[in-house]
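Bench log, entry 3. Co-assembly request; chain sequences pasted below exactly as received.
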Amino acid sequence: MATVLSVSGSPSASSRTGRLLRHLDQRLAVQGHEVIPLDVRTIPAEALLGADFRHPAIVEATELFARADGVIVGTPVYKASYSGVLKALLDLLPQYALTGKTVLPLATGGSTAHVLAIDYALRPVLNSMGAAHIVQGWFTLDKDITAHEDGSVTVAPSATEALTHVVDQFSAALGRTPYLAAAS
Amino acid sequence: MATVLSVSGSPSASSRTGRLLRHLDQRLAVQGHEVIPLDVRTIPAEALLGADFRHPAIVEATELFARADGVIVGTPVYKASYSGVLKALLDLLPQYALTGKTVLPLATGGSTAHVLAIDYALRPVLNSMGAAHIVQGWFTLDKDITAHEDGSVTVAPSATEALTHVVDQFSAALGRTPYLAAAS
Amino acid sequence: MATVLSVSGSPSASSRTGRLLRHLDQRLAVQGHEVIPLDVRTIPAEALLGADFRHPAIVEATELFARADGVIVGTPVYKASYSGVLKALLDLLPQYALTGKTVLPLATGGSTAHVLAIDYALRPVLNSMGAAHIVQGWFTLDKDITAHEDGSVTVAPSATEALTHVVDQFSAALGRTPYLAAAS
Amino acid sequence: MATVLSVSGSPSASSRTGRLLRHLDQRLAVQGHEVIPLDVRTIPAEALLGADFRHPAIVEATELFARADGVIVGTPVYKASYSGVLKALLDLLPQYALTGKTVLPLATGGSTAHVLAIDYALRPVLNSMGAAHIVQGWFTLDKDITAHEDGSVTVAPSATEALTHVVDQFSAALGRTPYLAAAS
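Structure output for the full assembly:
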């Protein structure tokens, strides 16, 4: 099966974005994929902001991207776009760090008015990094994610249905991308 | 093999966009695909602008999209975005007319300053129509397309290399998308 | 006072977009502005789609833009963006047809999920045309616009408040733009 | 005269973006404006990435934005968009931190292929923060900025002409925005 890097771009330790990704990771693991969680906020701040590509934490993150067949990119929507913290990590990766990879873009936010941030803001960045296949993503309303004390979440039924659909499309697409590494 | 609808969104009869697409169609045909050319400017103007989904020309175009496994969407860049003529056709198609389909976005223009119009303007529209897989596209400079009197074109070597690459990625991806029709 | 061109980009004769603009025109007229309504759907289809800049209807539209101090650009949201009909008109105008002008972008649609189409899709096009000042726009939900048999509309109170605010900002900005014609 | 906050969003100490902004600051100062330089990279990394709105460095930055009549937002283009470091700061400001303010967006990069990042990526974020007037911006090629040992820069003549034009438009617009604070 495939190796999936599951990246949460939230700066907050108690973020719904991070918890939602860890929740979805379980479904991919059950399907047989190796899932590697990466919370951008756990990368040392001076590494993310220091513009130093050789910092050990950045080298390690770069290797995680290089190893992955697929990448989930999850972000809260702030100011009509992805988080600066997420972009700070992407800025430090090689220009074509997503070449040959399948990508699932996910976002969370307080209002449906921000739904288009996935397609108008996040996707162009992922495309510029050479992604082979960015599958349909999903925007989940904060109110549809209930966090529990143990770190787990309950997702509202309507959101669960949509998320299950996009995760399964991502999973199916993972099996069909190796060719692209050769083609590019 | 697959059925490919190759859509030129140029309003001009002598457009480089249209000629470039017909040139690329040949490569796909040689690879065994059935290629159906569609020049938006040949659709009656009153059908495109009349907001009438039942006009025979719109019904026919809708059926062409429905039949296709893959769609090439080519447009000149005007005012930092796709052509209005192209969008007028897309506006008349069902909301999810690209569900389950593989899409190759192409653009032509006079300046490299417009390269990002593919990813920031055209792709979000194609995504909103449910496209299963929008492969990496390509922006070709007008000056790299030399039109001949017989309607054929010669493409500059550097552009030919890039176009061949994205067309072949599109062709390869076509073989892997049928699953998505079932998944959605 | 200023001359305002109020452009409805809806292809439909009974569109909420068009009726909403005519409703707002009245407020600007009461404030002393000369308001010129322009419904793109009344321009002959063959002129809009024929790529003929010299067609009398296009020449006339170009002159209306040239005369205006301010332009309201209203569009329904289709496929996550502005209408193709509107863009077909903009495509036929000079590249810098909005130089020195104040612009108010407005959109209507069925879902708040399309709110960002104004800022991510429409504004970049208006910017590419040299607009001096694009004031804050507004997205009005279809359900907040009730059409009457005589062509007039009633707008829901919450939407009225927001629309009044952006129209008055536009009106105020109109008085301050002449300088820019000289500066550019 | 007006108070201008001049924000460089580059993570690099030797960045062309930062030096270009300091160069342009001089022109605004000569015109009588109070110019306050802010290099995002000088804000402690843990403050920028810690999602802590009450950190003294964030409180101070927020106050600088609140005091300013105009804001220059300069960024290198990375991965087809603004820098993550810049966005990390914007994320920590109040949602409407730019209400009533005049904004000049500037970008630097290695290729003209990234020109549209200003209008498609940066402007929508600035709009979401309530900016009253975002004037026409400018993208300067790295090769047109020559850095000297003393930290100063020489800008190529063609770029100088364009930058002078947009800075002067910004300066002129600064005199006309106070009204908007009252209107919103």
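Chain C has one domain: 3-183. Strands of chain C lie at 3-8, 34-39, 70-76, 102-109, 133-134, 138-141, 145-147, 153-155.
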